[in-house]
Amino acid sequence: LAYEYVLLFSMKTALICIKANAQSCGECIQVSEICGWCTDETFLSEGESKSARCDDVSYLKKKNCNNIENPRGRTDVIQNKSVTIRNKDGNIKLKPEEITQIQPQKLKVTLRSGEPQTLDLKFKRAEDYPIDLYYLMDLSFSMKDDLENVKNLGTHLMREMREITSDFRIGFGSFVEKTVMPYISTTPARLINPCSNNENCTSPFSYKNVLKLTSNGEKFNDLVSKQQISGNLDSPEGGFDAIMQVAVCEEQIGWRNVTRLLVFSTDAGFHFAGDGKLGGIVLPNDGKCHLENDVYSMSHYYDYPSIAHLVQKLSDHNIQTIFAVTEEFQPVYQELKNLIPKSAVGTLSSNSSNVIKLIIDAYNSLSSEVILENSKLPEGVSISYKAFCKNGVQGTEDNGRKCTNISIGDEVSFKISIESQKCPSGGKPEVITVKPLGFNEEVSIELNFICDCECAKKGEPNSPKCHGGNGIFECGACKCNEGRIGRECECSKDEVRSDDLDANCRKPNSTDICSNNGECLCGTCECKKRENPAEVYSGKYCECDNFNCDRSGNLLCGGHGRCECRKCICDANYTGNACECSLDESTCLAKNGQLCNGRGKCECGICKCEDPKFQGPTCEVCPTCPGVCTEHKDCVQCRAFGDGEKKEMCQKECSYFNLIKVKERKDLPQPTDQSFPLTHCKEKDANDCWFYYTYAITKNSTKEVFVVEKLDCPSGPDIIPIVAGVVAGIVLIGLALLLIWKLLMIIHDRREFAKFEKEKMNAKWDTGENPIYKSAVTTVVNPKYEGK
After folding, report:
1. Are residues 477 and 69 in contact, defined by beta-carbon separation less than 8 angstroms?
2. What is the DSSP letter of 661?
3. Chosen domain end from 644, 675, 708
4. In the list 187, 436, 604, 694, which could disulfide-bond 581, CB 3.0-4.6 Å?
């Protein structure tokens, strides 16, 4: 069943090549990776179309094609710098650009349609990797108490982060809201001080870059301590405007190509794309930097960015976001985290006192996960990932892009498969990148596409082989110019059908065009294609095929020949209409080396027995014949012992074999000692004596009988032991019977005595007085006695 399934699958895949009807080598190799193009000029037989050159490579080889164009894709590594092994306690301090965490860095992949190319990627977290952290804080009035705790954040956070990396920088920015109604009050007094209750607040602003990234924690504390709270009218804040500017203004913020962390601290929700319409702002956010004197100057001009726009910019600039929000807004930012890769959410206490612990925990969570992403793929190209993570964990499909629980120094690998389904328009090389989210490193992959065959480069334009220059002769066939068709471009599309041309496609004395097995194109028969690619029509009029020959054993040409134009061409040593007759006589040889045991003839490798009473593969079986031993018993008996039924005619009837006597039975020939059949016999004579012999026919047809010279006669019985045994047996039987009788009598007596004892115990005796009995005692009563 498995073999039939594989065969069926193979036929179906091969059919893809044929059905494509490819007219050139370039078209053929775009159909499937299994398709090849035969470039032999004489490959096509009469009646076969040009597209028959395109077929499964294995079938082309079976058709004796010597030159097959079958280009294959490949992967070449251009840059393969090993991942960095670095220790923060070491003496050598590397620059960020000198640290490598992903390998290889550059590859060149050549793709053929339908053939995936696989490449291996390795990622290792480097120890003491530099970190840039930008703290973006909501300075609306509700964050007043939080600002007090953040004023000393710089030195404290710097001290904690030194445990993770020796190269740490920190920056600070703040945001409130767009400076238009209805987000803030635009009255002159409120523009100066938006707070009430005589609070001293700064003017409202959208986003302000207070401190670009620096390694000076004291400077951070100094500048942040000078910041003042501002105010706005609505609850959601304009944080998305600030995040966009922090992401795209790399120079102003001071981002390096290292780990980039953005801490977004707020106690409110956020505005997003479309909300700007409330203030009359309809232009979509352009995703560009608009900082003037470290202040966002276009908040009144561009709408808030969308979430998707933010995701794109954060990813492009390798920024990992930590949302430090109060418990009230946890659900909102958890949903936002699910939309932004490589982001985390931490619960901020009401006064931001836990912000350092929150940042450390969020960083550890983000850095322990690596997620691969790729740039936009060219049309028709697909990519798949398989991850090999710690502890033997593997991931496929969506989980194939990421590994979790990665510690510093851990190494994980990915297997990436890239496949092209078609050759893109133009066929020019394309470059894609694969990178781990949140990291500045990436793998550059140049994609090259195999859109044509190598042999096409050697094509001969306007070749005389293509009907006077009507095509390019390339890869063993004509590639016709526009408007021309036919194997040799001999026909114009305008002349495809005409009665004169059809006449060339009919056999003499026939009305069928191409024998009803093809189509007449340009006066030439182009034969039909069968579903089974191994079955083909051929011939000038498609009158021949290779599948309608005689069969034997349900096999075409008995499996011992090939079918050509509906006639079997038999292999050597086979003959017959269906090659069913073998000329090999080895199957007719009997064990004695004779053909059919000398009882028949060998025809087509099978014995035909001449005597009807014999049968079997070599005429060795005779169901109605007596056994070999019985058949020769009398002759052996008369010649060896001068006895038996043929004693009188022994010399006349029993001289057809050679008699050889041996002393003992063990001296008889054994089957393993002979190269011809040997029969062991054991027969009994009239005196009940056994004699043993063997009968054999040697390779030179000589009959041989080996016989044991002494008869094996049974000895007479010994009378005395028999009589003594009988007498002893009778005596013993008598004694046994007496013992049994005595035992039965004892049992009976004991039962009777027990019965007597039982009746004695149960007997009742009469207790009445004797009538003649008189007591010896006389009682006299004193009449005067009154009992006193």
Report:
1. no
2. E
3. 708
4. 604
The interaxial angle of helices 330-339 and 307-316, nearest 10 deg, is: 60
Helix axis angle for 355-367 and 153-161, nearest 10°, is 40
- Alpha helices (H) along 485-606: 499-503
List, in order, residues 6 or more apart from 405 with CB less than 8 Å away.
368, 369, 389, 390
434/446 Cα distance (integer angstroms): 11
Distances (CA, A) of 133 to 161, 214, 254, 408, 775: 10, 9, 10, 19, 143
Number of domains in the chain: 6
Tell me if 173 sits within 8 A of 208, measured CB to CB: yes
Amino acid at 232: N
Whole-number Å distance between alpha carbons of 95 and 339: 33
Tally DSSP H helices, then E strands, for the chain: 16, 42
Give the helix ranges, DSSP H, for 592-718.
Answer: 628-641, 650-653
**Residue 227 near residue 210, CB atoms below 8 Å:** yes
Domain-terminating residue out of 401, 430, 450: 450
Strand partners, 659: 705
Same domain, 388 and 361: no
- Among the listed residues 291, 279, 150, the one whose alpha carbon sits nearest the alpha carbon of residue 212: 291
**Pair 276, 346 in one domain:** yes
Residue 261, phi then psi, degrees to nearest 5: -115, 135
Range of the domain at 93: 74-127+372-450
Kindly state whether residues 285 and 424 are assigned to the same domain. Answer: no
Pairwise CA distance, residues 301 & 282, whole Å: 8
- 504 domain-assigned: no
Rounded to whole angstroms, the Cα distance separating 239 from 143 reads: 14
CA pair distance 633, 694, nearest whole angstrom: 11
How many residues are there in the chain?
Answer: 788
Q: Are residues 164 and 227 located together in one domain of the fold?
A: yes
Secondary structure of residue 669 in the 3-state scheme: coil
Are 660 and 632 part of one and the same domain?
Answer: yes
Let me know whether 222 and 329 are in one domain.
Answer: yes
CA angle 607, 610, 611 (to 5 degrees): 120
Sequence-ordered list of residues with C-beta below 8 angstroms from that of 49, at least 6 positions apart, any chain: 21, 487, 526, 527, 529
How far the first Cα of the chain sits from its last, in Å, is 134
Say yes or no: 415 and 329 in one domain: no
Question: Are 50 and 194 contained in the same domain?
Answer: no
Token pair belonging to 463: 């070749």
Mean pLDDT by 10 residues, the chain (788 residues): 43 68 87 90 80 87 89 92 71 74 92 92 86 89 75 78 85 89 79 77 89 88 83 83 93 90 88 88 92 91 93 90 87 91 83 77 85 89 92 87 86 92 83 88 92 88 84 87 79 65 78 82 78 79 87 87 88 87 84 77 85 78 71 85 84 84 83 61 84 78 83 78 90 93 92 87 64 76 68
